[in-house]
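User: My instructor asked us to take a sequence, write out its structure as tokens, and then describe one feature of it. I'm not sure where to start. Here is the sequence I was given:
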Amino acid sequence: MTVFVAGMSTLAIEFTTSRMLQTVYGTSNIVWANVIGLVLLFLTVGYFVGGRLADKRPYPQTFYALVAWAGFSGVFFLLLTSVLLKTAASAMAAVNVGAIASSLVGVVIALAVPITLLGCISPFAIRLAVQNVDEAGRISGRIYAISTWGSLLGTYLPVLLVIPLAGSRLTALLFGGILLLVGLGGLWLTGSRSRIAALLLPIVLLPVAFAWTSGGIKAYDGQIFETESAYNYIQVVRQGDCNYLLLNEGQAYHSFYCDGGAVPRVSVWSIMLAAPYFNAPPVQINRLAVIGLAAGTIPKQYTRVFGPIPIDGIELDGAIVQAGIDYFALTDPNINLIVGDGRYELNQLTHRYDVITIDAYKVPYIPWHLTTQEFFEEVRNHLTETGVVAMNVGRAPEDRSLIEAMTATLQTVYPTVHAIDVPGSLNTILVATMQPTTSQNMQQNLAQLGESVDPLLRAAVETAVSNQVPATASDIIFTDERAPVETIIDSLVLRYLLQEGVGGLPGVQ
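Assistant: Let's start with the prediction itself. The structure tokens for your sequence are:
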């Protein structure tokens, strides 16, 4: 039972740590690789230390004391991590590099203690269980199997159930607390002389747990809501008359809604309104699909401009959709809210659309399976004869490698691809059309807009006309077999930091 709980706690601590880091440093491959790499490193140290300690002091009392300390440190240091990351979150918002780095070092040190102690448990358990060398293989295999069985539970239970329902800090308290109780129980059953003193561990944890689990995860100015879902850390921040949706590290807004439906400026989402106007006039919009709904900014602006047309909005995270309903007025009856993976859910739909928009960033990454030739062929099968697909793609000031690769991929499926650089941002909207089209069509449509047209549409088309750039293609084509999206984005971010320095990073304030 002890190695089962230890295996469960090891993976639970790993996923809880990654979730805590996600609130500040995001969910990039680099963050995940660092968490997994550090866990493996500290487990390796634990295996060596645990094996040597077991040979030196092969006593059950020592084993259960080790388990109790592993449980204690799992709670204490993970809650300490949450405190350090709260400081780092404020530093990240203000791009305070020194505070960010020092917080990260503190997190690494905090993670080292519980994981190293957990690594000690399995070799120690094998040393205690093996009474006859002839049984060493069978017993060690059984212990590692039971430990891995616990790891399976520690993989699914926190991610799918405990973190979404209770949050990362209470998850750390739960799994570390269970391990601590197992260690204390073992000390009591083995008659350890230190069992009374060991009761001080939960007593010490009580004020720590109370102090470090109270309050919010972050404390941004204007924050009115936060929660943790199975996929994201979600914030809603109010500035002036508008609510803004932030996810994870909070270095980009993913949706906004202003009182009364006001749209104070043309944004990435507003440019999506101009996408169908690359077709020859007249332009008619009857149905829209949105992949990457977030809190509903794109469909709400389409509804404002084109009326209550049927809209299917697909969003992976149901908690984001609920935030959209609660804080972004995502209650329009014409918007069909669909929770699920964008590619899968699109292929379950039977309608054909005049426009399909794709804005599924998990900053700075686009999900790779939404960038491939095969995916865009599936999108094409859901478009009308004059349909268009509009996709938000990121860039750096001097690096358009991702845009060029996406353009090349789109050109293998669609006859024409256009590019619009969104002013005041590092975003480009790529628009691919089912029919051969020209940029002059946009100008003709702008000239034919009547006086009664919504001012937002006119502003969006004017902005698109004045910010068109050549749609240059590279020789990279993304496919389901090979899509080096993350590699391109990693190199893009690295080059940007080397050129601009950390001072070029945007803050949320």
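For the description part of your assignment, you could build on this observation: Residues 91-99, 505-509 have pLDDT under 50 and may be disordered. Try explaining in your own words what that tells you about the chain.
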